[in-house]
């Protein structure tokens, strides 16, 4: 058994995004994004892939981070300046592809000082796993899919829900209700708070 932790940082400030948040937690259903809308204009946009752009854009991406990511920056950049929350999943990378489930079918992003000028067109999808070094703080892990409907994860995969230190407490019951509806067997609740320690913040039990 080799356990790997994966993190997902989420905002909750826009009601129009709540459907996706609820889907991910209460329905345990993965939602995939169109890579052409990513915040990095070079992401998934390697020039050598231009001839197969139509094929790449049929592919959708679900982005997570390894637990080696810069947690403070990820909360700042992807969880609305620490006003959002973080989900932590666990997968056993020793399992077979049949048993590991959708969360285990991704791979880590490779960070490079310069994007390649050429790419193996037989494996053009690998361009979706290559980013510039300046994004390495994300320690990103990506799952690709073309057919994205109904891809769900199990009730034991979500192990932690962490509230940001600036989260509006009115949102806490909403997130907790989603977790209850998802029947997550192992999920614990944590809350970030500012402190005098070396990192400037810490997590406390909020279960």
Describe the overall structure.
- With 207 residues, this protein is an alpha+beta fold.
- It has one domain (3-205).
- The protein has 5 helices and 10 strands.
- Strand 9 (188-194) and strand 10 (201-205) form a beta hairpin.
- The protein starts with a strand and ends with a strand.
Short description:
The protein is of the alpha+beta class.
Strand element count: 10
Average pLDDT reading: 88
> What is the helical fraction, as a range of percent?
10-25%
Strand order of the largest sheet: 4-7-2-1-3-8-9-10
What characterizes the major β-sheet? 8 strands, mixed
Structural class: alpha+beta
Q: How many structural units, i.e. domains?
A: 1
Question: Which spans have pLDDT < 50 for at least 5 consecutive residues?
Answer: none
Cα-based radius of gyration, to the nearest Å: 18 Å
User: Tally the helices: what do you get?
Assistant: 5
Question: How would you spell out the order of helices and strands?
Answer: EHHEHEHEEEEEHEE
Tags for this entry?
single chain; 207 residues; alpha+beta; 8-stranded mixed β-sheet; two-stranded parallel ribbon; 5 helices
Mind sketching the topology for me?
Blueprint: E1 3-10, H1 18-25, H2 53-56, E2 60-66, H3 71-78, E3 85-92, H4 97-100, E4 107-108, E5 110-112, E6 130-132, E7 140-145, E8 158-163, H5 172-181, E9 188-194, E10 201-205
Parallel strand pairs: 5-6, 8-9
Antiparallel strand pairs: 1-2, 1-3, 2-7, 3-8, 4-7, 9-10
């Amino acid at each position: 058994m080799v356990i790997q932790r994966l993190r997902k940082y989420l905002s909750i400030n826009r009601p129009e995004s709540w459907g996706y948040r609820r889907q991910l937690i209460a329905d345990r259903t993965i939602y995939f994004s169109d890579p052409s809308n990513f915040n990095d204009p070079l992401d998934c946009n390697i020039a050598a892939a231009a001839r197969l752009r139509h094929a790449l854009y049929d592919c959708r991406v679900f982005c997570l981070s390894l637990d080696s990511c810069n947690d403070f920056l990820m909360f700042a950049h992807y969880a609305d300046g620490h006003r959002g929350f973080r989900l932590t999943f666990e997968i056993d990378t020793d399992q077979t592809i049949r048993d590991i489930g959708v969360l285990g079918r991704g791979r880590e992003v490779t960070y490079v000082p310069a994007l390649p000028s050429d790419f193996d067109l037989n494996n053009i999808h690998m361009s979706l796993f290559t980013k510039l070094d300046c994004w390495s703080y994300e320690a990103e892990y990506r799952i690709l899919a073309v057919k994205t409907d109904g891809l769900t994860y199990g009730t034991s995969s979500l192990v932690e829900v962490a509230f940001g230190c600036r989260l509006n407490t009115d949102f806490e019951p909403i997130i907790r209700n989603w977790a209850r509806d998802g029947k997550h067997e192992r999920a614990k609740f944590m809350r970030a708070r500012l402190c005098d320690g070396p990192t400037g913040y810490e997590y406390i039990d909020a279960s």
